[in-house]
Request: fold
Amino acid sequence: MLLGGSSLVTLLVGLLATKCWAILLGPKGFGYLGLVQNLLLLAGLVAGCGVSTALVRFGAEAAAQNDLVRVAALRQASWWLTGLLAGVVGALMWIFGGPISTLLLGANRDRGVVGWIGLALLFNLAGAIFTSLLNAHHRVGALARLNVLSKGVAAGVAVLVIFLWREQGIVAAVVGGAIAAWGCAWRVCSREIRPETDAVRPRQVITAARDLLRFGVPCTASLLVGTGVQLLVPVIVLNLMGQESVGLYRAVATVSTAYLGLLLTTMTQDYYPRLSAVSRHLPALIDLVNEQHELILLLAIPLVVVLLAAAPFLIPLIYSRQFRPVVSVLEWQLMGDILKFSSWTLAFVLLARDRSRAYFLAEAVVGITTVVSTWLGVRWFGLDGLGMAYLAQYALYFAVVWLLVRREIDLPLTRVNRRLLVTGLAAAGLVRLTSLAGWRQGRAPIAWLLAVVVTVGSARILRKKYGGLRWLKERST
Reply:
């Protein structure tokens, strides 16, 4: 609840910042901002080499065993690796800025833009290490404060810069936001976590670095063929439909990313460390996965259906009337998000169990599906094809991850989880069908009725299962 509450605050801050960017830049400038941000994220995947994720995996396990020397060795190794990798990738971005800019940002862009993004990359990776340290030590309160502080300060800096220089200030806004977020992460982490011990030998640091890379490199390869390929979707849209369409697609992706962050933050910073701590104890692991799956569906399904009901009013409110064509894309994407939440819950099992090959296979499937379905969807259905492709890729991803996890731990999907998944997909599908049928007058009452029914039903189950606020108070103490 702490992490979800902080994510709600950052969601509101992000929506406010997005509204400012949409008004100040318009669809075309907003599309270019999305391309620059995607370049930064893609570079972060390559340069990060999964070190921050591996630090949570091994750090949480070592902290649970009170192995302070191991924790200290992992901490030192992560800083050495991050500095080295960020330096190498940043230098390559300066050297090959021209070709990278032409390929990922469009023609007639200054090659220096890519070099400045390399600077932002350094601060992003350093901030990720601070966050992973807090995550590994399970400092939930500090993580919640950091989420709000870093997102708020970074968004404020970016909005101010774009307000002053409009499209010419996009790159400066991205770099300034990265530096601001790093400063917040350094401040919070330095106050929360002190060095565990100085009695760490070079050999222990080398061993820790090897463990981080052994886990992180396959994880990065998996992310590159999965998440990394999805970051190339705007590039496909740029080449097939133009920069303004990139802005429209980015509008949908921003809404999805914003509300997904409400639950993804909790899963990454709470569920994953706890899963890692019990990764070798199958009964506890299976119980935790089923509990998390049920909880995430009870929270996500009402959120998805409410967003479906509000989409025709929400998009113009968040952006402007120029972005109204993306409503149908968002409807398709929200259906896919239900499967995405379920897939994430299961995929974390492969990471916690250190099954890098299985995780790579799952991500490769979604990566290939993303490229093929996006290309065909845009060619056949235009902008709506992006939403259809999103639903298709996560339907296949869920099936693959489910089979891999079943093979790994023989996980049974409980009856409650099956019913929740079917109910959520049916409710979202019914809303989408009313839109496809052109029944505009009936769409709104049907959508809002489903939203009320699903929300009340989920609230009753949560209260019955967990006992409401009294349970939360007992758990927090």
Remarks:
- The chain has two domains: 1-241, 278-477.
- The chain is about 85% helix and 0% strand.
- The two ends are 13 Å apart (CA to CA).
